[in-house]
Amino acid sequence: MSLTNKLMVLHPEDLTAAPVLSADVPSNKDLASWIKQLHDGDGAQAAAQLLEAERQRISAAFDSLLHIVSHDLKAPLRAVEMSCQILREDHGEKLDDDAGKLISIAINGSRRMGNLLDDVIELSRVSSQPLQIETVEFAELISLAQARCAAEIRCSGARVEFSELPRFSCWQGRMVDVMAHLLSNAIKFRSAEAPVVEISARDAGDCWHLAIADNGIGIEEEHAEIIFDLFRTLHPRQKFEGNGAGLHLFRKILERQGGRIALRRG
Fold first, then answer.
1. Dist. CA 216–CA 194, nearest whole Å
2. What does the pLDDT look like over 124-156, one tens digit per residue?
3. How far apart are CA 7 and CA 265, in angstroms?
4. Count of CB atoms within 10 A of residue 165's CB?
5. Bridge pairing between strands 196-203 and 133-137
6. Distance between CA atoms of 251 and 231, rounded to whole angstroms?
7. pTM for this one?
8. What is the dihedral of CA 35, 41, 43, 45, to 10 degrees?
């Protein structure tokens, strides 16, 4: 069996979360007193509080924007999709083939736009969420990822193989997302053989070198970097579903933890 794809993940072993200060957002009338503190010997604490207050203000505004995107902007898309479905169901017999095709294009386009908005929202959340670092068993993360992909694994006859795996510190919830996506990709882009995914780890001194390899259709070396571009896909969407956001999202997750991800053939 030839394993054609290998995704390498580098991750620091002793990553810890930075402390976060808490402060109320100052009103305009309080700003002068904050500035005065900078000149009265308490500058470091005042500056830290001011920066944290500004971070909280920006975070609140960002959350409000995400709410608008996830609800208000998607509502017209749902209206278009539902209207087209009603038109096809109630008046389909009166429409010719060309009209039916146009309705299908409108429905599929609305769904795709909704999925793109979901991906943008998820990417924004990853960038703004506070890190939640904890020490975990890598084998446990893989088990949780396998549970998410249980139906795909069962239907495809996929086999996930790994032996002794380490404990390390990471953003547990998001690392489960990463592993589940990589397992799902190995199944989606499989060859004629049943999918086989091999997971291993190597202690590289200051980090753990995690490798996820599969026997799928493979990726050419020239595409090893562009697959991480946002909304970049290598295959027609008619053949493989997806918006091309997953690997970009998971690179961001790993980078926020001080890690990185790359593809190697071999």
1. 9
2. 777 777 778 899 999 999 999 999 999 999 999
3. 9
4. 17
5. unpaired
6. 13
7. 0.64
8. -120
Here the tokens at position 226 are: 């562009």
Coil vs helix vs strand at 164: coil
Is the confidence at residue 258, as pLDDT, over 90?
no
> Which residues, in sequence order, are CB contacts of 2 under 8 Å at separation 6+?
215
**Residue 7 CB neighbour total at 10 angstroms:** 22
Q: Which DSSP symbol is given to 68?
A: I
- At residue 229, what is the residue type? D
| Amino acid at position 265, single letter | R
Query: Looking at residue 13, what is its pLDDT?
Result: 38
Answer yes or no: are the C-beta atoms of 191 and 154 closer than 8 Å. no
Indicate the pLDDT class of residue 14, thresholds 50, 70 and 90.
very low
CB atoms within 10 A of CB 172: 16
